[in-house]
Write a structure and sequence with these properties.
Layout lengths: L10 H24 L6 H40 L1
Length: 81
């Protein structure tokens, strides 16, 4: 993939980064749940914010996959007829 221009988003990189972010949030949830009586309101709000962002990123990735699927289907359909 060294021929890919720098301004392009590489799908594998996007998925890898999303997976890392999921792991980070999961570790944070596990860490905070061990000391649930000592969670500061700011920590809880930050966790909610991170989970919301992660959800939006997941939705965006899903939309990209759906769009690519539609493009592929249309391309195949156009080749046939």
């Amino acid at each position: 993939m060294s021929n890919v221009p720098e301004d392009r988003i590489v799908f594998k990189t996007m998925i890898d980064n999303y997976t890392k972010a999921q792991g980070k949030v999961a570790r944070l949830v596990a860490s905070l749940s061990k000391n649930s009586s000592n969670i500061a309101p700011g920590q809880f709000l930050m966790l909610q914010f991170m989970m919301g962002n992660l959800s939006q990123i997941g939705d965006s990735i899903s939309n990209v996959v759906s769009s690519l699927n539609s493009i592929a289907k249309n391309s195949i359909s156009n080749m046939r007829g």
